[in-house]
Amino acid sequence: MPGPFRGEFPIVVEGVRNAFGESVVHEGLSLKVRRGEIIGVVGGSGTGKSVLMRSIIGLQVPTEGRIEVLGEDITAARGDEDIDIRSRWGVLFQGGALFSTLTVAENVEVPLREFYPEISDELRREIARFKVVLSGLPEDAANKYPAELSGGMKKRAGLARALALDPELLFLDEPTAGLDPIGAAAFDALTKELQDTLGLTVFLITHDLDTLHEICDRVAVIADKRVIAVDTIENLLKLDHPWIQEYFNGPRGRAAHMAQERIVRTDKKMDKPAQAGD
Ligand SMILES: Nc1ncnc2c1ncn2[C@@H]1O[C@H](COP(=O)(O)OP(=O)(O)OP(=O)(O)O)[C@@H](O)[C@H]1O
């Protein structure tokens, strides 16, 4: 079992082409994700954000290009070696993708059973319960079925399963879609906390401007079949690409930006020692 990845870029995508029949989704797409960062991935609907994620985790084989994950060539990986890498990432798919006939805890146990069949039933149950709580669910949620959970709780249950194997990489596909603003903000805070405390690298597909402003270290923009820019939002705003300007500088983008500035100002004020007249 290799130790944790210590290189600078746990995900390296180089010159990838993905096509379905005549329809080319990616052409010459490259992206490097830094270790320990939360990278937001944005782009219009159908630009291939999910296809990119699926390529990185080996579910979609590109017709051209190379993808390295945690130092392993995923586009060439076969057999046991492939499985070895798979145990080092966790994925929260759109909608949670929970098994409806299993309880939350049993869902979390699925990857544990697959990758560590030698673990005793008792220990496996204990680990599952720990992950449920780590994901911010009440302990009693462990015995509930997905149908008994709210949308936000389902996402957290999916997250608990993604964290089952103590991954180094966490993939989140639109985690706040369908959540109310309070639920979305809470999920963002949890993602940030997990990145900080567990040292995770997070690949986060989202349309949520608040999430991008709030927790992403950098944002990768997909347009014209490739990643056209990867940078902080502040630097992306300096580019004059029409989609980037419309997305970040449109009415919703500006509102999210102003909200973020208000939060930063309030935080600074609270950090300041109290003075007479404050
Ligand atoms: N298995 C597949 N077979 C055929 N076409 C596919 C397949 N998977 C994805 N596509 C196509 O690839 C394109 C990109 O899809 P993808 O789901 O990655 O977009 P996205 O950027 O994640 O979109 P959204 O923001 O709407 O979720 C779409 O045109 C989609 O129809």
From TrEMBL:
Domain spans labelled ABC transporter: 11-249
CDD domains: ABC_Org_Solvent_Resistant
Alphabetized UniProt keyword annotations: ATP-binding, Nucleotide-binding, Transport
SUPFAM superfamilies (alphabetical): P-loop containing nucleoside triphosphate hydrolases
Gene3D superfamilies referenced in this protein's UniProt entry, alphabetically: P-loop containing nucleotide triphosphate hydrolases
GO molecular function: ATP binding; ATP hydrolysis activity
UniProt key word Phosphoprotein: no
Record has Nucleotide-binding as a keyword: yes
Name under which the protein is recorded: ABC transporter ATP-binding protein
Organism: Novosphingobium ginsenosidimutans
